[in-house]
Each structure stands twice: as C-alpha cells, then as structure tokens.
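#struct-help
A.M.: can someone run this one for me? Single chain, 323 residues.
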Amino acid sequence: MDELGDTWVPLIKSWRLNERMYGALTGKSKQMIANEYGEDQLKKWRRGFKILPPPVSSYSLSYPGNDYKRTKYVRDLRISLSETINRSWEARKLQIHRKFPKSESLHTCMKRSIPYYTQRIVPEAVNKGKRVLITSHENAIRGILMHLCEIPEEAMNQLHLPNGLPLVYNVKRKCITLLDDGSGVDPMTKHDFGPAAQYLFRPCELDDDFFDQMEQQALQNQPEEEVEAPPAVQNQTEQAEADDAAPADDAPIEIIEKVAAATRMVEVVEGMTAEEAALVRAQRLSGSPIIEAADEKPVPSQITEGMTAEEAEAARSTRLHQQ
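D.P.: on it. Structure tokens below:
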C-alpha cells in the first residue's frame, strides 16, 4: 500500500483468512512428508476436501493457541473446556482458552473463511458498493471461490491458483476475470488453473446494467441524421409563407378593386379616341354595362379613316346614339 500511495485505505485483519492449519505437517517440506508418509498420502492431505492431517500437540509452537497475539485478540471462537482446565491447572490460576484448530482440511478451513465473507465483507463493504481487496492464502481463497463460483466438491482438488495473481470477481454478473498485464499473452494460457478452470471462468451473466451499456454504445455509434419536422410544424411553416405572400389583412379592399378596374380600363381605352375613352370610363364608374367592340365590328380608328371632320363627328354621334 505504501508503493501505491494508498496507506489511508482501511486495512482489516482476521485470523479467519489465514492459511489452512496443516497440524503436525506444519514446517515440513513436501519432500520430507513424501519420504515419511508416501507420495499418495501427501496428495490426499493436500488436495483432499475432508481429509485431516495429523493434529498438532497442544504444547507445540505451531499450535495457534500458543500464539500470544491470537489468545489476546481472538474473541470469535468458543471456549475449549479441556484446554481451559489443563492450562488453569498448570498455571495455578484460571486461564480461559479458546478452541483453536489443531488440524484443518479444506472443508474445515472453508467453515471459517466463508462465514467471514458472507457475514462481514458482504454487508460491510460489498452491499455498500465498495471495492474490496482480499489477500489470503491459496486454501482460504479456494474456499471462497467454491462458494462464489459454485464449484463442486469433487472438482476442488483439481483447482490450482497461481501465487500473486489477482482474480477480479464481478458481483452483479457473477464471473471472474483476470487483469491484463500488458504482455499481450492470454492469461489463460500463461497460467495453469488445473482441470477445474472451467468452473472458475464461466461466462458472465447478462444483467440490466449490461443491456443499458450496450444500448448507450449503440446510440453513440449511430450516425447523426437530419431530424424531420413534425407535420404540425411543417403546416405552420407553409401557412406562414403563404401569409407572407398574400396581402396584409389591413389592406383596403377598395384599393385592390380600383387597381383591377384601372387595369381593365387600360385594356378598353387602348385603340380609342379621347372622347370614346372618356365615355367608357364614365360608364364604368357609374356601373352601366359596357358594350365592347367585337372582333367583327370595325375599330373606331378604322371608321373615321377617309372622312372629313364633319362626317366623322356625325358618324361618332350616330354610333354613340346607337349605344
């Protein structure tokens, strides 16, 4: 923790995460045990699930009850009646002694490591969303992994755990992954977990958080498209453009009618004399019907052609009289 600069992180110690108690085999090498008891017996003691090694003596230095720190601070073990009587008789005073293990199998080691995980680590840290680093020995970790990954008893002797290799357990997805060491080598091929690795590295379960993450990634990777305006917005836009093109509501209707009438008057006046145009203009303003010259009738300019002024005036008076 000093190297990481995290000396402020709470550190909790418990004897329940200690290595398995090998009894009378404590302190002996594998070769010494194989020479004394045989290779087959050594494998049974090391990999057997419920096989206990020979117990240690109560007066051995390897017995946990002779460790001053454990006898002083361990309070979660029941009292051993036999050990209390023997030690009190020897010391000539009452000495309460706990029932420390003199030998442990993997099964008995799990009976102290798993309750510590479920009763202390889970409610005090995991359920509160905290990240927990558990550092322990192989057999204590194997027991916890058996509980988390539901490894059967017959497969426990086939599970190997490399020393110093972090295992990351996802509580929600219930699976174990390995940290990438940056070497580019698959950790599964680099380390030997034994034949029971299939139970340890099962596929992760798909929870709600997984689907939410996949949906967010899909939305981020989707290309941006032009958003079409709703029909109501389009109709409002078209109506606004039509209103801009149409005349204002407050424009006088009389002006529009006069403009149209003046346009028609120009068409009628074209090709007439001043007197005829004035007469047509007066009739139009008075609302009288206007008799426009048809295509088969001669145009006034054609009638007066070749006449004297008196004849043209008389013809004009006659035509106006007929109208």
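A.M.: thanks! The chain has a mean pLDDT of 77.
D.P.: also worth noting: Residues 106-124 form the longest helix (19 residues).
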